[in-house]
Design a protein that fits this description.
With 256 residues, the chain is an alpha+beta fold. The protein is built from eight helices and twelve strands. Strand 8 and strand 9 form a beta hairpin. The longest helix is centred in the N-terminal third of the chain and has 14 residues. Pfam families: GntR, UTRA.
Length: 256
């Protein structure tokens, strides 16, 4: 077995280097048939068993492998985040309920004008809008690219918020007193652009959900949002019965 070299100069912990290399190999499909056990990794990387266990613990917490006592680790099926339709729900909460940690990389948070979006909010074209763009993660993997616009006159206090690990709607309520009470979403399947596929790390064959939403408060449009969600990690669900039929639009659908 060929020894795999890690940088032992002390710049980065060995377990972290090992974890990152195993993620790289997972993505390359090296472990589709079988994932190596602890002793094999010790020999392969010439590290201690403690180092291996630290790396595997991170892979487990990110939902990439399943490791049960007395059994060899195996590659986990890709975690799927499910959202109900026809009811208020939170992507923030659903990700963490799936057992994965949730965080965001804020790509933009500023005030700008956008005539097209302003029209969708029934505003004049020159009205300043608060714009928030986030790349949202479930574990170490991107899940969604989220862009939202709100009237700056209402949402300007959000400029001081840290959106790396918090809900937009919680911050909006806490800082402005504004709560969304209704909304409309249009959802369709799309093929991500090359740039979007790179950003979201989508597999070559994966499509995505394109979600446009207008959120309202007391019958006033206050939010326009576009979310692009990886189709291989996200599913929508609905309930139906013989009495009520298929119910998708009985309540606002929101995704924090």
């Amino acid at each position: 077995m060929t020894e795999r070299r890690l940088d032992r100069s002390g710049g980065q912990p060995l377990w972290k280097q090992l974890q990152q290399d195993l993620v790289r190999r997972l993505r390359a499909g090296e472990f589709d048939d079988v994932f190596p056990g602890e002793l094999a990794l010790v020999e392969d990387y010439q590290v201690s068993r403690h180092t291996v266990r630290q790396a595997l613990a991170k892979l487990r917490s990110d939902g990439l492998i399943v490791a049960e006592r007395g059994r060899q680790p195996r590659v986990a099926t890709t975690p799927e985040i499910r959202q109900p339709m026809g009811a208020l729900y939170s992507l923030f909460s659903s990700v963490e309920a799936s057992g994965l940690t949730q965080h965001s990389v804020v790509r933009a948070l500023d005030v700008r004008a956008d005539g097209v979006i302003a029209a969708r909010l029934d505003l004049e074209a020159s009205i300043p809008l608060l714009y928030l763009e986030r790349l949202r993660f479930a574990g170490d993997e991107p899940l969604a690219l989220d862009r939202v616009w709100l009237p700056a006159s209402l949402a300007e206090p959000l400029l001081d918020a840290d959106f790396t690990h918090t809900s937009l709607y919680n911050e909006l309520a806490a800082r402005t007193g504004l709560r969304l009470d209704h909304g409309r979403e249009d959802i369709r399947a799309v093929v991500p652009t090359p740039a979007e596929r790179t950003l979201l790390r989508c597999p070559p064959e994966a499509a995505a959900f394109s979600i446009n939403r207008q959120g309202t408060s007391q019958n006033r449009p206050v939010e326009w949002r576009h979310t692009l969600v990886r189709g291989d990690r996200f599913a929508l669900s609905a309930e139906f019965s013989a009495n009520t039929g298929y119910r998708l639009t009985t309540a606002a659908v929101t995704q924090e």
